[in-house]
Amino acid sequence: MSTSNERIQLGDLTCWRIQHAGAELLVSEQGAQILRYQPATGKPLIWLSDEAAYQTGKSVRGGVPVCWPWFGDLQRNPDAIRSAYTRPEQAPAHGLVRDRDWQLIGLNTEEDGVTLSLAFDTAAQPIAEWPHAAELQLDIHLGERLKLSLTTRNLGDGELPISQALHTYFAVSDIHKVQIDGLDACRYVDTLHDWNKVRQKGPVTFSGETDRIYLDTPQQLNIVDPVWKRRIVMRSEGSASAVVWNPWIDKARRLSQFADDAWQGMLCIEHANVLDDSLILAPGAEYRLDVTLWSQAL
Fold first, then answer.
1. Is the pLDDT of residue 77 over 80?
2. How far apart are CA 143 and CA 156, in angstroms?
3. Range of 187's domain?
4. Distance from C-alpha of 41 to C-alpha of 31, rounded to nearest angstrom
5. Active site includes 167?
6. CATH number for the domain including 121?
7. Is 132 annotated as catalytic?
8. Residue 29 has pLDDT above 80, yes or no
9. Before 69, cis peptide (omega within 30)?
10. Per the residue annotation, which of 141, 167, 193, 209 is the catalytic one?
11. Per-residue pLDDT, 1
């Protein structure tokens, strides 16, 4: 099977373009962010904004940003996570690693694909407002499927509280016509309606702005897309929560690097450890969140 690896520059960002058996992956060293995943056949699985900006210190709109050591608004995280950051009033959304350069620690070609490994070590790159010793590693394996493994290692002497997410933007044909299977009967927190808890009934469909945190989620979820005649399958380990998001019309107009009508062709399903599913790692402990993605014909 043909394989090629190429280091390229997109704007300010150093990226890796990896091709294997007809599939293509594009990853930025800043944020260890997957920007593009094109399987060997069919449409891309990962959505990337047409207005994406490749700038130092700014997360790119789309792809798979890594949210860590907290997800979303710091003030909505458990007390232990909030108190770990010394300037909570200035805390950026989705943590501290999306706009920082990670280090390439491995690029290995095997029979079944290519694995790119990137790491962020707070000992080597200290964060003054978050004085904790930890290493975060993302292993990205491109083969017949795309597998992401996000590992946190507590290198310090005290407990390490974190929440996290792989903030995956999926490409869909039409948000009005797709549905998510696998969440029936799961409870979710509706962040747009006073953070009330609701129980899902049937598949998830979309008819307006959506921002929900699903709890006690199963290992497998599916996006069913009848127009593109495919099912995107997501299988996770080490995660019992998932965020489902689409900005719809009004919020789309307020988002950076986002066309006014782009909400129609994307949705986010973010495999996560948030709220009651957040983590506290003992000294020397490590934790791994795995997500594997692929598509099937309907």
1. yes
2. 35
3. 4-297
4. 28
5. yes
6. 2.70.98.10
7. no
8. yes
9. yes
10. 167
11. 65
The distance of Cα 130 from the centroid of its chain, to the nearest Å, equals 21
Block residue for tokens 């797709």:
178
**What are the backbone angles phi and psi of residue 209, rounded to the nearest 5°?**
-55, 135
Structural domains in the chain (count): 1
Tokens of 231: 């099912």
Distance CA 5, CA 107 (A): 9
φ and ψ of 25, to 5 deg: -130, 140
Question: In the numeric block, which tokens belong to residue 57?
Answer: 């210190």
Assign residue 139 a region: left if phi > 0, alpha if psi is -120 to 50, beta otherwise? beta
Q: Which tens digits make up the pLDDT trace of 173-215?
A: 999 999 999 999 999 999 999 999 999 999 999 999 999 999 9
Backbone φ, ψ for residue 193 (5° rounding): -130, 70
Handedness of CA 16, 19, 20, 25 (dihedral sign): positive
What does the alpha-carbon distance between residue 77 and residue 255 come to, in Å, rounded to a whole number?
A: 23
Task: Summarize pLDDT for 104-156 with one digit per residue, the tens.
Answer: 999 999 889 999 999 999 989 999 999 999 999 999 999 999 999 999 999 99
Set 176, 270, 271, 286: catalytic member: 270
Select from 76, 153, 75 the least CA-distant residue to 120. Answer: 153
Taking the C-alpha atoms of residue 188 and residue 186, their distance in angstroms, rounded to an integer, is 6
d(C-alpha 149, C-alpha 240), whole Å: 15
